Amino acid sequence: MNSSVGSRSTASLSFVAPLACVPVLLLAGCMQSRVEESREMPTHIAKGEAVVILAKPQVEGAGAEDGFMDCVSDELKGGKSNIVVHGNNEFVDKMFPWFEPGTAPAKPEAIAALLTRPGVSEKVAATGVRYVVWLDGSTQKTDGGGSIACGAAPGAAGCIGFGWWEKESAYEATVWDLKQAKSAGSVGTNVTGTSAIIGAVVPLPFIARVQSAACDRMAAQLRTFFTEGEGEAPAGETAPAHVEPTKGTSQ
């Protein structure tokens, strides 16, 4: 799923097919996904430059879950594009205390002032990090219903009923260019999925792995964001979007 966009333009990808959920649910969880990208300036990873993925600080708590950040990092690094991803905890430790949740810059413009502090620019250069990706979002249960009952008796056991639940994974990645002290753009992904358990003697689960799907789509779009930044459409134009459905999975 690839898209490239012009300066300060937005491309949105979406797929909605509620009627397709019924047959798909019989095989696996049913999912729908949407990916959005907004680019404010060209981006391209040069040799010796790296990306670091951090949880966006919140007023209360932290940003995206550690597991989701690790998943996106693992999916993004290496491969054909050969993107170098710096470990997030290692980066925060090396830059202590400037990227701790309570002291991290709130705006990309604050990076310029931060780099003027003694030793900070040298520490950033030592890490090789060019782009900081701030991840924000979560995976939550949004709906559910039905019931399932299980019982056992001498020589027999089983379950009967039907239960279902819906989850949503909504995440946004904001990309900062440390070299230019500016926001380079953002990438967002939203995946909703319906899972179910059918009680037919033996419980049959059909699980929609929404967070795993959101990770795959986020990593793929970020990879495009960094590797196709030199081929975006002219300013004010939006490149055609390619849309694909999200298939269910029973992992």
Task: Describe the structure using short key phrases.
7 strands, disordered C terminus, 7-stranded mixed sheet, disordered N terminus, alpha/beta, 22% helix, 38% strand, 251 residues
| Secondary-structure element order, N to C | EHEEHEHHHEEEH
The helix content is 10-25%
Integer average pLDDT: 79
Span between termini:
22 Å
Q: Say how many strands there are.
A: 7
- Outline: elongated
Total domains, how many? Answer: 1
Uncertain segments are: 1-20, 22-27, 229-251
With strands numbered from the N-terminus, the spatial order across the biggest sheet is: 1-2-7-6-5-3-4
Largest sheet: 7 strands, mixed
The proportion of strand residues reads: 35-45%
Calculate Rg over CA atoms. Answer: 21 Å
User: Would you tell me the structural class of the helices and strands?
Assistant: alpha/beta
Number of helices: 6
What does this structure look like?
This protein is an alpha/beta fold. It has one domain (9-230). Helix content is 22%, strand content 38%. The protein has six helices and seven strands, in the order βαββαβαααβββα. Strands 1-2-7-6-5-3-4 form a seven-stranded mixed beta sheet. A hairpin with a 2-residue loop joins strand 5 (129-153) and strand 6. Helix 2 crosses helix 6 (210-227). The longest helix has 18 residues, at 210-227. The model is unreliable at 1-20, 22-27 and 229-251 (pLDDT under 50).
